[in-house]
Amino acid sequence: MDPLSIAAFAATVLEVGIRVSGQVNGAITTWKTTDVVLLALSNETSNLNLVLDHMYRAWQEIAECESQLPATRDETLSSTLASLLEDADKLLRRLQTLILDIGSRPRTRRRFTWLQKQSLAIDLQGDLRNVRLRLSELLLANSA
Questions:
Q1: DSSP letter at 70?
Q2: Cβ(14)–Cβ(48) under 8 Å?
Q3: CB contact at 8 A, 7 and 82
Q4: Structural domain harbouring 70
Q5: How many domains, in total, are found in the chain?
Q6: Are 63 and 3 in contact (CB under 8 A)?
Q7: Taking the chain, what is the end-to-end CA distance rounded to the nearest angstrom?
Q8: Which of 6, 11, 14, 12 is nearest to 59 (CA)?
């Protein structure tokens, strides 16, 4: 995958992340809760968005440099990043589905439904964290 495609993919996942982050924050406000799992999901999606933004900018710069001077491309790095971006996209969309599903319930059922699905939310938060950390490590290791 070329640097411009990676930058575009990171931008697309970032757009999803921003939307999902807003939905999680909206759920906190609408549901009038300070549930620690929802707060952790809010923090994690915001942190992931920061990493995705840095990745987008870095790969956009790489693409601009390559357009002027051909560079040797590390296909292993490109495929690893693409795979992690796909994972981030899938996890964000699963979180979005969860939040929208609970939000669509009658107010009297939301809390009960949230309690039933809280373990799924905890798993998603951990998976999002792992993807964010792996993306951060790759970004740091390849920025030197």
A1: -
A2: no
A3: no
A4: 3-141
A5: 1
A6: yes
A7: 21
A8: 6
Biggest CA-to-CA distance, the chain: 61
| Residue 144 neighbours by CB distance under 10 Å | 4
CA distances from 90 to 30, 33, 69, 82, 83 (A): 25, 26, 34, 12, 11
Confirm whether pTM is higher than 0.85: yes
**Angle (CA) 142 82 84, round 5°:** 80
33: three-class secondary structure by DSSP: coil
1: which 2 tokens? 């995958």
Q: What are the pLDDT digits (tens) for 69-113?
A: 655 556 788 889 999 999 999 999 999 999 999 999 998 898 899
Euclidean distance between CA atoms 10 and 63, whole angstroms: 13
Tokens representing 20 are: 């999902």
